[in-house]
Amino acid sequence: MAEKESDEGGGAGARQRRPHDSAYKYLFSSRRVVHQFLTRFIDVEFTRGLTPDDVRRFESSFVSDEFLSRESDVIYTIRTGAREVYLYVLIEFQSTVDKAIPVRMLHYICGLYDQLLRGSSAGLLPAVFPVLLYNGGERWTVPGNVRDLIDGSIPSRYIPSFEYYPVIEHDIPDETLERVRGLVAAVVYLEKRRDAASLVGAVDAVIGMLAEERPEELRLFTTWLNRMFRHAFSGGEIERIRDLRGVRSMLSEVVDQIIERGKEEGLEQGLRQNARETARRMLARGYAIDEVAEVTGLEASEVRLLAKNLHSGRE
């Protein structure tokens, strides 16, 4: 059965995904978001002049549901004149750089071609445009062509050559995001904020980027925000958000909760440090491991490690 075109959101696949995966796949289930991403963040000729009507969810009549639900990929078709290009987006959320990404993307695309050949033998295979959206904090150092990962001890014509288009969030200047504006720019802007202090200063900038978005996109953004930061906002609250005042209120609440959580974590860390200091003093006075653990609330294994370090002179 062909997959229905979706403007605002899609269901999660059968595989359990991390919160980031689910949030981004939901966001990119909107063709308007994908159109904005293509026209404002992808600088290639065939994306220029695209309209939202040129972008459609890939129909799965020739491709198995198992293939479409794998990993965090999103597949769209793009009409460019009389031609149709398959856009393949692999959204990468790993905290560390993974040099296997080019191989994995090539593998997925070959799998797509295999599925298409099984379903139809008519005409040429479609062109596939592979895009990597990377939001990790580390610098992206993976080669842009899979050829650069392969030993060149045989003639080059026998070595696969495959390039992907990288969109590295960390490398996009804030000034660029503020200039291009829109929902995707706002999301990337927030993604680049790595601490509570920078989030506080981001609220006004994000609201400015969303100023021209429709109520549907504003709700899409707040749903993404809810999934991304895992805060307890009910679906009813999100549905009632129809203007920037509602978005600002929700965004400010997220920031306040992050700051409060940071304070709580800092307090907890301070309490644990005090407990360790108490444990050291008790150990120095000859108290037994079990007694120290009972008084301080620390695990006996941690007290043993403190005692070992104390006796070896490392603390």
Keywords:
13 helices; 49% helix; disordered N terminus
Give a structural overview:
The chain has 13 helices and 5 strands. The protein is an alpha/beta fold and 315 residues long. It has a domain at 1-171. Helix 9 (215-229) packs parallel to helix 11 (244-284).
How is the secondary structure organized here?
Elements: H1 19-27, H2 31-41, E1 55-57, H3 65-68, E2 73-80, E3 83-92, H4 101-119, E4 128-134, E5 165-168, H5 174-180, H6 183-191, H7 196-200, H8 203-209, H9 215-229, H10 235-240, H11 244-284, H12 289-296, H13 300-312
Helix pairs in contact: 1-9, 5-6, 5-8, 6-8, 9-11, 11-12, 11-13, 12-13
What spatial order of strands do you see in the largest sheet? 1-2-3-4-5
Low-confidence stretches: 1-17, 232-236
Range of helix content: 40-55%
Rg estimate, integer Å: 25 Å
Q: How is the biggest beta sheet arranged? A: 5 strands, mixed
Q: Measure the end-to-end span.
A: 66 Å
Order of helices and strands, N to C?
A: HHEHEEHEEHHHHHHHHH
* Beta-strand content: 5-15%
Number of strands: 5
Net shape = extended
Overall mean pLDDT: 78
Structural class: alpha/beta
Put simply, the count of helices is 13
